Amino acid sequence: MTGRTGKGKLAVFDVDGTLVDSREILKRASDAAFIELGLTPPPYDELRQIVGLSLREGLAQLAGGQPPERVEALVAHYKSSFSGLRREPGFVEPLYAGAADLLTRLKAQDWRIAMATGKSRRGVETIIEMHCWADLFDSTHCADDGPGKPHPAMLLEAMHALDARREDTIMVGDTSHDIRMAQAAGVRAVGVSWGFHTREELEACDPAYIADTFVELEAELDRFGATPA
Asked: Is the pTM higher than 0.85?
C-alpha cells in the first residue's frame, strides 16, 4: 500500500480464521465439552462450518437436536475448557503471517479499523491484550452485543460507531457467515481462503473478491482505499 489510500475508509475484520489461526484451540475446547457430556465430538469438517456464529447457535447445530439444557451445558463446558487452555504456560492464539503488518499499515494510512467476531466480549479482550491491539482497533463488536452473524447488527453498529458510510466500508472474513453479513449490511464483502471455509464455499456466496494471500488482500484494500470517499 502507498500514500494515504485509506483516508475516510473503514475496514472491518473477522478474527478467527481471518487474522488468528485458532483451529487448534477451537477443536480442543469443542472435543473437551462434548466428551464431558458423554457425546461424540464432532469432526473438524463439521466444527469449521459453525465458526463465526455465536457459540450457543454453533454448538446447538453441532449437538444435533440435544435439548436446550444440554446445549447450555455444552456452552458452559466449552467456555471452561477454552479458559483452561488459555491459562496453559506459553499459550498463544497465533496470527497468520502477514496479519500484523497489514493492520499496522492500515492504521498508518488513516483507515478506521473495526472488529466483528463471533467471540465473546471476554474473548475479544483477551485477544486484544495478547496481540497488543488496543491502539489498532477503533471499535470492536462481538456475539455478546446482539444478534450474531450473518445478521448485520455487528457490522451496522461498527459503521455507526465510527461514522462510516456503507460505500466506504469493507468487510473481510473467512466464512460464508461473514460474507452474508456484509451483503445484508450493504457493504463490500471480501473473503479470505486460508480460514475455516473453503474457497468454493465462499464463492457460493458471491463475494466481491476472494483473497488467497495477504498480498492479494492488501492489494484489494489498496484498490478500495483509493476510491473517492
From this structure: yes
